[in-house]
Design brief:
The complex is a heterodimer of chains A (113) and B (110).
Chain A: E1 4-7, E2 10-13, E3 19-25, E4 31-37, E5 44-51, E6 54-57, E7 64-66, E8 76-78, E9 87-94, E10 103-104, E11 108-112
Parallel strand pairs in A: 2-11
Antiparallel strand pairs in A: 1-3, 3-8, 4-5, 4-9, 5-6, 7-8, 9-10, 9-11
Chain B: E1 4-6, E2 11-14, E3 19-25, E4 30-38, E5 44-50, E6 55-57, E7 60-65, E8 70-75, E9 84-92, E10 99-100, E11 104-109
Parallel strand pairs in B: 2-11
Antiparallel strand pairs in B: 1-3, 3-8, 4-5, 4-9, 6-7, 7-8, 9-10, 9-11
Classes of the chains: A mainly beta (113), B mainly beta (110).
Chain lengths: 113, 110
């Protein structure tokens, strides 16, 4: 199993550009999440999904969209990038509600100029 | 007050030392507790879950004190490879949300 994969590893955007961060998992996990990690702050939940077709907002959803058309994929879209979105983004998956362990992808380092 | 608070460190300890970290949480309804380890520029990985009765995994011991709302992580016989940031994670009861602390940085020195 590849586990949780994310692409790209690094990205530089200009203010106002849009892009999609890709996340995929091959463990047939129901739950998937997107977090951002900034210096001096813990990981903060952006959006999450408890199954295909079901998504919900986390703590810091503004400026981001998600969709979950398949169990495997959970892309994160930045609609109009802002410098405040410069961060490291982690995708995570969890088997189901009975499982505690979250598995994280390797992260995407995004810089918005 | 932050929902989950940790001393950011760094804790600089010699090899072989015993080191302990605490983490406090504000939501008394919190149900599940974890320690994750994060190496520099890498993703977090689960180190251990924290149970009410306390639990041990080799050199690592985790404990929960619900009355005082804190969890602890004890590392015995520290190794160079233990150098990392340790994240305290709390899951409030009935929610999907996992709340992460900012992490405690440990440096084990030769």
């Amino acid at each position: 199993n590849a586990g949780v994969t994310q692409t790209p590893k690094f990205q530089v955007l200009k203010t106002g550009q849009s892009m999609t961060l890709q996340c995929a998992q091959d463990m047939n996990h129901e739950y998937m999440s997107w977090y951002r990690q900034d210096p001096g702050m813990g990981l903060r939940l952006i959006h999450y999904s408890v199954g295909a077709g079901i998504t919900d907002q986390g703590e810091v959803p503004n400026g981001y969209n998600v969709s979950r058309s398949t169990t495997e994929d959970f892309p994160l879209r930045l609609l109009s990038a802002a410098p405040s979105q410069t961060s490291v983004y982690f995708c995570a998956s969890r088997r189901d509600s009975a499982s505690n362990e979250q598995f994280f992808g390797p992260g995407t380092r995004l810089t918005v100029l | 007050r932050k929902e989950v608070e940790q001393d950011p460190g760094p804790f600089n300890v010699p090899e072989g030392a015993t080191v302990a970290f605490n983490c406090t949480y504000s939501n008394s309804a919190s149900q599940s507790f974890f320690w994750y380890r994060q190496d520099c520029r890498k993703e977090p990985k689960l180190l251990m879950s924290v149970y009410s009765s306390g639990n041990e995994d080799g050199r690592f011991t985790a404990q929960l004190n619900r009355a005082s709302q804190y969890i602890s992580l004890l590392i015995r016989d520290s190794k160079l490879s233990d150098s990392a940031t340790y994240l305290c994670v709390v899951n409030p009861s009935g929610t999907y949300k996992y709340i992460f602390g900012t992490g405690t940085r440990l440096k084990v020195l030769a």
